[in-house]
Each structure stands twice: as structure tokens, then as C-alpha cells.
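Side project, low priority. Logging it here so it doesn't get lost.
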Amino acid sequence: MSLSMLGSAHMAAAIASLLFGLMVLLERKGTQTHRTIGAAYVAAMIATNLTALGVYRLTGQFGPFHALALLSLATLVHGVLAALRRRPGWLATHYYSMAWSYVGLLAAAAAEFVARSPLLAGVVRDGRSGMLVGLACTAVFLALGFVVIPRLQARALAGFGER
């Protein structure tokens, strides 16, 4: 399999996003290290989403994954603006948006992995079936996000109080 230059950039940015996102999740919140790694995550996610908007190999046209990249950018911007503006309730908004940003990234990574898995080669035969498998993975991660994020958010923000 050969990757185009854009596809290679997209894959590198996505891997960096996954790693920086995991580091931010594991890091103590509110520290300078959190902010630094968080800024790297945001930069990598911007690169991931912008390069995703230029990849058309699956269908040859704008499709649902391009729409999800735009939604991902909007979620990311929402979380960053909350932290920069620091209006009442900003911390919960920041956490919620950034958590959903990472869940979306995990969904995309899982969809890509499953669609390219040799075990599913009989299922994913063309762009349409690849898109359906990818959207199914996305739906699973969304459902998990609705269960897990509120629990993790309550735990993560417990020590901060209202900011």
C-alpha cells in the first residue's frame, strides 16, 4: 500500500494526536505540563483535521468523514476558546469539549483500523462498505462517550471547584 504525501501527513498528525491526547488524559490537570501537551494536542488535531479534509480516496467526493472532521474542528475550537476566555463554567466546557475531541479521534482511529484489518477484508470490499464500517465504529464510540465522559469529568473536576 502506498500513501500519498497528504495521506502520510494525515497519518503522522493522527498518530501524534493520539499520543498527545493520551498524555493529556494521564497528566494532572491545570499544570504547565498539561497546558504544553494540550497545545501540542490541539496543533496535531488541527493538522489531522485539515489533512482529512483533503483526503478523498474513499468516495472521491465530500463525505460523512469530511463532515466529522469539520465537527471535530468545531469541538476543538469550542474547548480551546472556553479555556482562553475563562467565563463562568469554562472548566466543565473545556473538559467536555476536549474529551469529546479525543473520543472522536479514537472513533476515527478505530474505524480506520477496522476498515483496513485483513480479518474484515471480506466485509470491506469498496468505499461504501468501508464507510458503513467506519460509521458503525463511530456510533460505538459515541455511545461509549456518553457513558464514560460524564463519569470521568466529575472525577477530574472534583478538586477544582467552579472556575
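Brief comment: The two ends are 49 Å apart (CA to CA).
Revisit when time allows.
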